[in-house]
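Record 1 of the preview.
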Amino acid sequence: MTWYEGGCHCGKVRFKVRIAKAEALECNCSICSKKGFINLITDAENFVLLAGEEHLSTYRFNTEKAEHRFCKTCGIHPFSRPRSHPGSFDVNARCLDAGPSFLTIEPFDGQNWEANVAAITADSSG
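->
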């Protein structure tokens, strides 16, 4: 497993994430599609916030279970705490310093989340 670093646009929020499988999801739900979020879900022990907790704010909607974290300065959403994987982190692969090009990105029909979420929760996050 390899560690990758990333952060928001202004650099105030920095993190590192350990990736076991180079796989991510492109969700078509209302928030992911508007943000351009490429979902790289990982267990909590594979995520470290290096800097910027004080620069983060949280947006919640619908069930208010997911925590969509964003930088208060530049507005970029580098990661979230997803409803689909409680206790895990969902890194925006576009915020990795290396970018998302090394990942295999699969579509996920988040517009029909309830009907499809079992397909992504059956596998253990890496």
